[in-house]
Amino acid sequence: MKSFAYKAALATVTLLPLISSTALARSGGTVAFLMPDQASTRYEEHDFPSFKAAMAKLCADCKVIYQNANGDVALQQQQFNSVISQGAKVIVLDPVDSAAAGGLVNVAHSRGAKVIAYDRPIPDTAADYYISFDNEGLGHAISASLVQHLKATNVPAGSGILEVNGSPTDAAAGLVRNGVHKALAGSGYKTLAEYDTPDWAPPKAQQWTGGQITRFGSAIKGVVAGNDGTAGGVIAAFKAAGVTPIPPVTGNDATIAALQLIIVGDQYNTISKPSELVATAAAKVSEQFLDGQSPAAKTTLYNTPSELFVPAVITAENIKAEIFDKGIEKPETVCTGNYADGCKKLGIIK
Description:
Elements lengths: L29 E6 L6 H17 L4 E6 L4 H13 L4 E4 L7 H10 L3 E5 L10 E5 L1 H18 L7 E6 L5 H15 L4 E7 L5 H15 L3 E6 L2 H13 L15 H8 L6 E3 L2 H16 L8 E3 L2 E6 L2 E3 L4 H6 L6 H4 L5 H6 L5
Parallel strand pairs: 1-2, 1-3, 3-4, 4-5, 5-11, 6-7, 6-8
Antiparallel strand pairs: 9-12, 10-11
Helix pairs in contact: 1-9, 2-3, 4-5, 6-7
Protein backbone atom coordinates (compact mmCIF):
# COMPACT_ATOMS: atom_id res chain seq x y z
CA MET A 1 0.00 0.00 0.00
CA LYS A 2 1.40 3.39 -0.91
CA SER A 3 2.51 5.25 2.19
CA PHE A 4 0.08 7.85 3.51
CA ALA A 5 1.49 10.93 5.22
CA TYR A 6 -1.52 11.08 7.51
CA LYS A 7 -2.15 14.73 6.81
CA ALA A 8 -5.74 13.99 5.89
CA ALA A 9 -6.92 16.09 8.77
CA LEU A 10 -5.89 19.07 6.68
CA ALA A 11 -6.59 17.56 3.30
CA THR A 12 -9.38 18.55 1.00
CA VAL A 13 -11.29 16.57 -1.60
CA THR A 14 -12.05 18.38 -4.81
CA LEU A 15 -14.81 16.96 -6.99
CA LEU A 16 -12.98 17.05 -10.29
CA PRO A 17 -14.79 15.66 -13.32
CA LEU A 18 -13.22 12.30 -14.08
CA ILE A 19 -15.22 11.76 -17.25
CA SER A 20 -15.87 14.02 -20.17
CA SER A 21 -19.53 14.53 -20.94
CA THR A 22 -18.79 13.60 -24.52
CA ALA A 23 -16.97 10.36 -23.71
CA LEU A 24 -18.81 7.49 -25.35
CA ALA A 25 -15.91 5.13 -25.65
CA ARG A 26 -17.79 1.97 -26.51
CA SER A 27 -21.21 0.39 -26.70
CA GLY A 28 -22.65 -2.78 -25.25
CA GLY A 29 -21.84 -4.96 -22.27
CA THR A 30 -23.35 -5.74 -18.89
CA VAL A 31 -21.95 -4.41 -15.62
CA ALA A 32 -23.24 -5.27 -12.14
CA PHE A 33 -23.06 -2.99 -9.11
CA LEU A 34 -23.50 -5.10 -5.96
CA MET A 35 -23.64 -3.24 -2.64
CA PRO A 36 -23.59 -4.74 0.87
CA ASP A 37 -26.36 -3.27 3.00
CA GLN A 38 -29.19 -0.81 3.42
CA ALA A 39 -28.14 0.36 6.88
CA SER A 40 -26.48 3.30 5.16
CA THR A 41 -28.49 5.38 2.70
CA ARG A 42 -25.35 6.23 0.70
CA TYR A 43 -25.69 3.37 -1.78
CA GLU A 44 -29.14 4.35 -3.07
CA GLU A 45 -28.64 8.10 -2.70
CA HIS A 46 -25.06 8.54 -3.91
CA ASP A 47 -23.03 5.51 -4.99
CA PHE A 48 -25.37 3.85 -7.47
CA PRO A 49 -26.77 7.04 -9.05
CA SER A 50 -23.22 8.29 -9.59
CA PHE A 51 -22.04 4.98 -11.01
CA LYS A 52 -25.05 4.72 -13.32
CA ALA A 53 -24.61 8.28 -14.58
CA ALA A 54 -20.90 7.74 -15.24
CA MET A 55 -21.55 4.49 -17.10
CA ALA A 56 -24.16 6.22 -19.24
CA LYS A 57 -21.50 8.71 -20.39
CA LEU A 58 -18.85 6.05 -20.97
CA CYS A 59 -21.03 3.39 -22.55
CA ALA A 60 -24.45 4.53 -23.61
CA ASP A 61 -25.62 1.03 -24.55
CA CYS A 62 -24.23 -0.80 -21.53
CA LYS A 63 -26.65 -2.53 -19.20
CA VAL A 64 -26.15 -1.76 -15.51
CA ILE A 65 -27.62 -4.11 -12.89
CA TYR A 66 -27.94 -2.92 -9.30
CA GLN A 67 -28.46 -5.22 -6.31
CA ASN A 68 -28.17 -4.64 -2.55
CA ALA A 69 -27.65 -7.60 -0.20
CA ASN A 70 -29.08 -5.91 2.90
CA GLY A 71 -26.29 -7.32 5.07
CA ASP A 72 -26.99 -10.94 4.06
CA VAL A 73 -23.95 -12.94 2.89
CA ALA A 74 -26.08 -15.69 1.33
CA LEU A 75 -28.25 -13.16 -0.50
CA GLN A 76 -25.19 -11.44 -1.92
CA GLN A 77 -23.92 -14.77 -3.22
CA GLN A 78 -27.30 -15.37 -4.89
CA GLN A 79 -27.20 -11.91 -6.43
CA PHE A 80 -23.64 -12.48 -7.62
CA ASN A 81 -24.59 -15.77 -9.30
CA SER A 82 -27.64 -14.11 -10.82
CA VAL A 83 -25.72 -11.29 -12.49
CA ILE A 84 -23.18 -13.79 -13.79
CA SER A 85 -26.03 -15.74 -15.39
CA GLN A 86 -27.33 -12.48 -16.87
CA GLY A 87 -24.03 -12.02 -18.68
CA ALA A 88 -22.25 -9.50 -16.47
CA LYS A 89 -18.63 -9.22 -17.60
CA VAL A 90 -17.65 -6.73 -14.90
CA ILE A 91 -18.93 -6.89 -11.32
CA VAL A 92 -18.36 -4.00 -8.93
CA LEU A 93 -18.57 -5.69 -5.53
CA ASP A 94 -18.75 -4.12 -2.07
CA PRO A 95 -18.76 -7.35 -0.05
CA VAL A 96 -20.89 -8.08 2.99
CA ASP A 97 -18.15 -10.46 4.13
CA SER A 98 -14.68 -9.73 2.79
CA ALA A 99 -13.42 -13.27 3.43
CA ALA A 100 -16.41 -14.98 1.81
CA ALA A 101 -16.03 -12.71 -1.23
CA GLY A 102 -12.89 -14.57 -2.23
CA GLY A 103 -15.06 -17.44 -3.48
CA LEU A 104 -17.12 -15.01 -5.55
CA VAL A 105 -13.97 -13.72 -7.25
CA ASN A 106 -13.04 -17.28 -8.19
CA VAL A 107 -16.52 -17.88 -9.62
CA ALA A 108 -16.30 -14.72 -11.70
CA HIS A 109 -12.88 -15.59 -13.05
CA SER A 110 -14.04 -19.08 -14.00
CA ARG A 111 -16.75 -17.42 -16.12
CA GLY A 112 -14.43 -14.85 -17.68
CA ALA A 113 -15.76 -11.92 -15.66
CA LYS A 114 -13.77 -9.20 -13.91
CA VAL A 115 -14.33 -8.12 -10.28
CA ILE A 116 -13.73 -4.61 -8.99
CA ALA A 117 -13.58 -4.59 -5.18
CA TYR A 118 -15.37 -1.43 -4.12
CA ASP A 119 -14.89 0.36 -0.80
CA ARG A 120 -14.07 -2.90 1.04
CA PRO A 121 -11.06 -4.94 -0.09
CA ILE A 122 -11.00 -8.70 -0.65
CA PRO A 123 -7.78 -9.74 1.11
CA ASP A 124 -7.65 -13.50 0.52
CA THR A 125 -8.23 -13.61 -3.25
CA ALA A 126 -6.99 -10.87 -5.53
CA ALA A 127 -9.74 -9.03 -7.34
CA ASP A 128 -8.98 -7.43 -10.69
CA TYR A 129 -9.00 -3.92 -9.23
CA TYR A 130 -9.74 -2.19 -5.91
CA ILE A 131 -11.23 1.30 -5.59
CA SER A 132 -11.76 3.02 -2.26
CA PHE A 133 -10.68 5.78 0.02
CA ASP A 134 -7.50 5.20 2.02
CA ASN A 135 -9.17 3.38 4.90
CA GLU A 136 -6.10 3.05 7.07
CA GLY A 137 -5.35 6.69 6.42
CA LEU A 138 -8.82 7.80 7.43
CA GLY A 139 -8.66 5.74 10.64
CA HIS A 140 -5.42 7.51 11.46
CA ALA A 141 -6.85 10.90 10.48
CA ILE A 142 -9.99 10.80 12.63
CA SER A 143 -7.96 9.60 15.62
CA ALA A 144 -5.18 12.16 15.14
CA SER A 145 -7.83 14.86 14.88
CA LEU A 146 -9.37 13.69 18.16
CA VAL A 147 -5.96 13.58 19.86
CA GLN A 148 -5.18 17.12 18.70
CA HIS A 149 -8.54 18.27 20.08
CA LEU A 150 -7.97 16.60 23.44
CA LYS A 151 -4.56 18.20 23.77
CA ALA A 152 -5.90 21.60 22.71
CA THR A 153 -8.59 21.39 25.38
CA ASN A 154 -6.02 20.39 28.03
CA VAL A 155 -7.21 16.83 28.58
CA PRO A 156 -4.30 15.37 30.54
CA ALA A 157 -2.03 12.66 29.20
CA GLY A 158 -3.00 9.19 30.39
CA SER A 159 -6.72 9.88 30.04
CA GLY A 160 -8.91 7.19 28.55
CA ILE A 161 -10.46 6.68 25.12
CA LEU A 162 -12.95 4.11 23.87
CA GLU A 163 -12.59 2.53 20.41
CA VAL A 164 -15.75 1.48 18.58
CA ASN A 165 -14.60 -0.29 15.45
CA GLY A 166 -16.54 -1.56 12.47
CA SER A 167 -17.73 -5.01 11.47
CA PRO A 168 -15.30 -7.89 12.06
CA THR A 169 -16.26 -9.30 8.64
CA ASP A 170 -15.36 -6.08 6.81
CA ALA A 171 -11.70 -5.90 5.77
CA ALA A 172 -11.99 -2.14 5.30
CA ALA A 173 -13.03 -1.87 8.95
CA GLY A 174 -9.83 -3.70 9.82
CA LEU A 175 -7.80 -1.15 7.90
CA VAL A 176 -9.60 1.70 9.66
CA ARG A 177 -8.85 0.01 12.99
CA ASN A 178 -5.16 -0.31 12.06
CA GLY A 179 -5.01 3.41 11.38
CA VAL A 180 -6.71 4.17 14.69
CA HIS A 181 -4.22 2.02 16.59
CA LYS A 182 -1.25 3.72 14.92
CA ALA A 183 -2.56 7.19 15.73
CA LEU A 184 -3.32 6.39 19.36
CA ALA A 185 -0.14 4.41 20.02
CA GLY A 186 2.03 7.46 20.57
CA SER A 187 -0.68 9.89 21.59
CA GLY A 188 -0.21 9.81 25.34
CA TYR A 189 -3.81 8.64 25.81
CA LYS A 190 -4.81 5.08 26.69
CA THR A 191 -7.49 2.85 25.22
CA LEU A 192 -9.86 1.80 27.99
CA ALA A 193 -11.67 -0.78 25.83
CA GLU A 194 -12.47 -1.47 22.20
CA TYR A 195 -15.25 -3.26 20.35
CA ASP A 196 -15.72 -4.65 16.85
CA THR A 197 -19.33 -3.78 16.03
CA PRO A 198 -21.15 -6.65 14.24
CA ASP A 199 -22.57 -5.44 10.92
CA TRP A 200 -21.64 -1.85 11.86
CA ALA A 201 -25.00 -1.85 13.68
CA PRO A 202 -25.62 1.39 15.63
CA PRO A 203 -27.82 -0.34 18.28
CA LYS A 204 -24.98 -2.74 19.08
CA ALA A 205 -22.52 0.14 19.34
CA GLN A 206 -24.96 1.92 21.64
CA GLN A 207 -25.44 -1.13 23.84
CA TRP A 208 -21.71 -1.75 24.21
CA THR A 209 -20.97 1.90 24.92
CA GLY A 210 -23.67 1.98 27.58
CA GLY A 211 -21.86 -0.82 29.37
CA GLN A 212 -18.55 1.03 29.18
CA ILE A 213 -20.13 4.20 30.59
CA THR A 214 -21.26 2.14 33.58
CA ARG A 215 -17.80 0.63 33.84
CA PHE A 216 -15.57 3.69 33.36
CA GLY A 217 -17.83 6.70 33.90
CA SER A 218 -16.11 10.07 33.70
CA ALA A 219 -12.77 8.42 32.86
CA ILE A 220 -13.95 8.34 29.23
CA LYS A 221 -12.54 11.49 27.64
CA GLY A 222 -13.15 10.65 23.98
CA VAL A 223 -14.42 7.96 21.63
CA VAL A 224 -13.04 6.88 18.26
CA ALA A 225 -16.03 5.50 16.34
CA GLY A 226 -15.32 3.92 12.95
CA ASN A 227 -18.26 5.44 11.09
CA ASP A 228 -21.14 7.82 11.56
CA GLY A 229 -23.66 5.07 12.31
CA THR A 230 -21.66 3.71 15.22
CA ALA A 231 -20.91 7.29 16.31
CA GLY A 232 -24.65 7.91 16.46
CA GLY A 233 -25.05 4.83 18.65
CA VAL A 234 -22.25 6.02 20.94
CA ILE A 235 -23.79 9.48 21.29
CA ALA A 236 -27.21 7.96 22.02
CA ALA A 237 -25.64 5.90 24.83
CA PHE A 238 -24.12 8.99 26.46
CA LYS A 239 -27.43 10.85 26.19
CA ALA A 240 -29.32 7.91 27.68
CA ALA A 241 -26.86 7.89 30.58
CA GLY A 242 -27.37 11.62 31.11
CA VAL A 243 -23.71 12.46 30.43
CA THR A 244 -23.17 16.20 29.84
CA PRO A 245 -21.20 17.29 27.98
CA ILE A 246 -20.73 14.32 25.69
CA PRO A 247 -17.03 13.47 25.21
CA PRO A 248 -15.81 14.18 21.67
CA VAL A 249 -16.80 11.36 19.30
CA THR A 250 -15.31 10.72 15.86
CA GLY A 251 -17.09 9.40 12.80
CA ASN A 252 -16.69 8.66 9.11
CA ASP A 253 -18.88 9.07 5.97
CA ALA A 254 -20.24 12.62 6.45
CA THR A 255 -23.84 11.44 6.56
CA ILE A 256 -26.49 14.10 6.94
CA ALA A 257 -27.25 12.90 10.47
CA ALA A 258 -23.56 13.19 11.42
CA LEU A 259 -23.23 16.65 9.90
CA GLN A 260 -26.22 17.72 11.97
CA LEU A 261 -24.65 16.25 15.12
CA ILE A 262 -21.44 18.16 14.42
CA ILE A 263 -23.39 21.36 13.87
CA VAL A 264 -25.05 21.09 17.30
CA GLY A 265 -21.84 19.92 18.99
CA ASP A 266 -22.75 16.31 19.79
CA GLN A 267 -20.20 14.76 17.39
CA TYR A 268 -16.65 16.05 17.02
CA ASN A 269 -15.62 14.95 13.53
CA THR A 270 -16.42 12.85 10.50
CA ILE A 271 -14.75 12.03 7.19
CA SER A 272 -15.87 13.48 3.89
CA LYS A 273 -15.80 10.69 1.33
CA PRO A 274 -17.90 11.85 -1.62
CA SER A 275 -19.23 8.62 -3.09
CA GLU A 276 -19.25 10.30 -6.47
CA LEU A 277 -15.45 10.03 -6.58
CA VAL A 278 -15.19 6.29 -6.05
CA ALA A 279 -18.33 5.48 -8.05
CA THR A 280 -17.12 7.44 -11.06
CA ALA A 281 -13.68 5.84 -10.83
CA ALA A 282 -15.30 2.40 -10.67
CA ALA A 283 -17.30 3.18 -13.81
CA LYS A 284 -14.15 4.27 -15.63
CA VAL A 285 -12.34 1.04 -14.70
CA SER A 286 -15.42 -1.00 -15.65
CA GLU A 287 -15.46 0.55 -19.10
CA GLN A 288 -11.76 -0.17 -19.54
CA PHE A 289 -12.27 -3.83 -18.62
CA LEU A 290 -15.19 -4.10 -21.05
CA ASP A 291 -12.95 -2.63 -23.71
CA GLY A 292 -10.29 -5.26 -23.05
CA GLN A 293 -7.85 -2.86 -21.41
CA SER A 294 -5.80 -3.31 -18.22
CA PRO A 295 -6.49 -0.26 -16.03
CA ALA A 296 -3.37 1.31 -14.58
CA ALA A 297 -2.78 0.88 -10.86
CA LYS A 298 -2.21 3.97 -8.76
CA THR A 299 -0.99 1.71 -5.93
CA THR A 300 -1.33 -1.92 -4.84
CA LEU A 301 -3.19 -3.39 -1.87
CA TYR A 302 -3.63 -7.10 -1.13
CA ASN A 303 -1.87 -7.91 -4.41
CA THR A 304 -4.60 -6.02 -6.23
CA PRO A 305 -4.06 -2.97 -8.48
CA SER A 306 -5.79 -0.15 -6.64
CA GLU A 307 -6.79 3.47 -6.55
CA LEU A 308 -7.18 5.01 -3.09
CA PHE A 309 -8.54 8.51 -2.64
CA VAL A 310 -7.46 10.78 0.22
CA PRO A 311 -10.27 11.73 2.62
CA ALA A 312 -10.88 15.02 4.39
CA VAL A 313 -11.59 15.30 8.12
CA ILE A 314 -14.63 17.49 8.89
CA THR A 315 -15.18 19.37 12.14
CA ALA A 316 -17.30 22.36 13.03
CA GLU A 317 -14.36 24.55 12.04
CA ASN A 318 -14.31 23.53 8.37
CA ILE A 319 -17.77 22.06 7.77
CA LYS A 320 -18.96 25.13 5.86
CA ALA A 321 -15.93 25.25 3.54
CA GLU A 322 -15.62 21.51 2.94
CA ILE A 323 -19.25 20.40 2.80
CA PHE A 324 -21.44 23.34 1.86
CA ASP A 325 -19.16 25.64 -0.13
CA LYS A 326 -18.07 22.64 -2.24
CA GLY A 327 -21.67 21.61 -2.86
CA ILE A 328 -21.37 18.17 -1.28
CA GLU A 329 -24.53 18.90 0.72
CA LYS A 330 -27.01 21.77 0.54
CA PRO A 331 -27.89 23.93 3.56
CA GLU A 332 -31.60 23.37 2.97
CA THR A 333 -31.07 19.63 3.35
CA VAL A 334 -29.03 19.76 6.56
CA CYS A 335 -30.01 22.99 8.33
CA THR A 336 -33.56 21.97 9.14
CA GLY A 337 -35.59 22.34 12.32
CA ASN A 338 -33.46 22.35 15.46
CA TYR A 339 -30.25 22.52 13.41
CA ALA A 340 -30.96 25.94 11.91
CA ASP A 341 -29.57 27.89 14.87
CA GLY A 342 -26.35 25.89 14.79
CA CYS A 343 -26.01 26.49 11.06
CA LYS A 344 -26.38 30.21 11.64
CA LYS A 345 -23.67 30.19 14.29
CA LEU A 346 -21.30 28.46 11.89
CA GLY A 347 -22.16 30.81 9.02
CA ILE A 348 -23.73 28.10 6.89
CA ILE A 349 -26.97 30.05 6.63
CA LYS A 350 -27.90 33.60 7.51
